[in-house]
C-alpha cells in the first residue's frame, strides 16, 4: 500500500503556491533541500510527477492540478481540527493574516488594532497592507479587504462601507498655476495617477470616470505615494477623502462637480471563516467600519 505523510503534502502545497523552491522553503522555515526531498518522496509514493521543473520555477502537471484540490481540502480540515484543539480557557491564540489595500490598512485598520491586541494579548495579527489582490485559496491571507465583490471561489463577502474620493492639489500648486474654476480648467494641469499595468483593480481607474481625455503625466503604483506627490505639488490627483485629510497641505478641487465613490468588501474563505480567531478579526473589522461611517466621507 502506497503511503505519504502530511509534511510531504504541505511541501507540495507550498511549492505549488509559491512557484519557486527557495521561496516556498523560506515560507515554511525549512531548508530548500529538505523541501525538495519531501516532494520527491511524495511523487515516488503516489507514482506520478507533480511538477514540471523549469528555469522559471515549478509548474503543476495535470496530476499535480488534480492533487491540489484534495490537498487543499485536507489542509482546511487540519486547520479546523487544530482550531478545535486550542484551549479556550487560555484565550484566543495563533496567527491571523489580513490582506488589505494600503490605504485601508494604513489609515483605518492599523490605528485601531490596539483595542484588539489589548483584549487578546496572545493573538498574533499579520497585517499585509499592499496594493494587490490576495488569494485566500492560496492562503496568502486568512481575511482580505477588496474593492470589488469576488465572483469566484468558495468565499464569503460582506460589504463593509462606501467611501468618498475627490480631486486634490496642494495649496502651493493652486497658488502658482492656472486657476481651476470650471471643469474645463482641469485639462490645463498635470495629473497624477496609476501606472496602467500595475493597476491591481479596475476600481482604481478614476481618471477615465472623470474624463477619458485625462492622462496622468506622473504615474505612481500606490495611493500613499500619490498623496505625497500631490501634497508636494507634482500635480493634481484623485484621492480618498480619508487619506487626503492626513495631508494638511491639500485643498479639494471642484468638490461640487467632481465627486467619486468606491466600496470596500470583507472576504473570508469558506473553510476557515468559522475558526475562532478568524471570526474574531472579521467581526472586529465589520464593527469598526460600522461605527466609523463619518470617517469615510468627511472632508476636511
TrEMBL record:
Biological processes, Gene Ontology terms: DNA-templated transcription
InterPro entries xrefs: LysR-type_TF_proteobact-type, LysR_HTH_N, LysR_subst-bd, WH-like_DNA-bd_sf, WH_DNA-bd_sf
Keyword set, alphabetical order: DNA-binding, Transcription, Transcription regulation
Matches recorded under SUPFAM superfamilies: Periplasmic binding protein-like II, Winged helix' DNA-binding domain
Record flagged with keyword Transcription: yes
GO molecular function: DNA-binding transcription factor activity; sequence-specific DNA binding
Pfam hit, one: HTH_1
Transmembrane portions of the chain: none
Segments forming domain HTH lysR-type: 4-61
Family, per entry: Belongs to the LysR transcriptional regulatory family.
Protein name: LysR family transcriptional regulator
Classification of source organism: Bacteria, Pseudomonadati, Pseudomonadota, Betaproteobacteria, Burkholderiales
Amino acid at each position: 500500500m502506497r503511503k505519504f505523510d502530511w509534511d510531504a503534502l504541505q511541501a507540495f502545497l507550498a511549492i505549488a503556491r509559491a512557484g519557486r523552491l527557495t521561496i516556498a522553503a523560506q515560507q515554511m522555515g525549512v531548508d530548500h533541500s529538505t523541501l525538495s526531498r519531501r516532494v520527491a518522496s511524495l511523487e515516488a509514493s503516489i507514482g506520478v510527477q507533480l511538477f514540471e521543473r523549469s528555469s522559471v520555477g515549478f509548474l503543476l502537471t495535470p496530476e499535480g492540478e488534480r492533487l491540489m484540490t484534495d490537498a487543499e481540502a485536507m489542509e482546511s480540515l487540519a486547520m479546523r481540527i487544530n482550531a478545535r484543539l486550542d484551549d479556550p480557557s487560555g484565550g484566543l491564540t495563533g496567527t491571523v493574516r489580513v490582506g488589505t489595500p494600503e490605504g485601508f490598512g494604513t489609515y483605518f485598520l492599523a490605528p485601531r488594532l490596539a483595542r484588539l491586541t489589548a483584549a487578546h494579548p496572545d493573538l498574533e495579527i499579520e497585517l499585509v497592507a499592499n496594493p494587490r489582490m490576495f488569494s485566500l485559496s492560496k492562503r496568502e491571507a486568512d481575511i482580505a479587504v477588496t474593492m470589488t465583490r469576488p465572483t469566484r471561489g468558495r468565499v464569503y463577502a460582506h460589504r463593509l462601507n462606501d467611501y468618498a474620493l475627490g480631486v486634490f492639489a496642494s495649496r502651493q500648486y493652486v497658488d502658482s498655476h492656472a486657476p481651476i474654476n470650471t471643469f474645463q480648467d482641469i485639462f490645463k494641469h498635470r495629473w497624477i495617477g496609476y501606472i496602467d499595468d500595475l493597476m491591481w483593480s479596475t476600481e482604481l481607474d478614476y481618471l477615465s470616470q472623470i474624463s477619458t481625455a485625462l492622462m496622468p503625466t506622473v504615474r505612481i503604483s500606490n495611493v500613499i505615494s500619490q498623496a505625497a506627490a500631490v501634497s508636494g505639488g507634482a500635480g493634481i490627483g484623485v484621492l480618498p477623502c480619508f487619506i487626503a485629510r492626513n495631508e494638511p497641505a491639500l485643498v479639494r478641487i471642484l468638490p461640487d462637480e467632481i465627486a467619486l465613490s468606491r466600496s470596500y468588501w470583507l472576504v473570508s474563505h469558506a473553510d476557515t471563516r468559522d475558526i475562532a480567531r478568524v471570526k474574531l478579526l472579521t467581526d472586529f473589522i465589520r464593527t469598526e467600519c460600522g461605527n466609523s461611517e463619518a470617517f469615510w466621507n468627511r472632508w476636511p
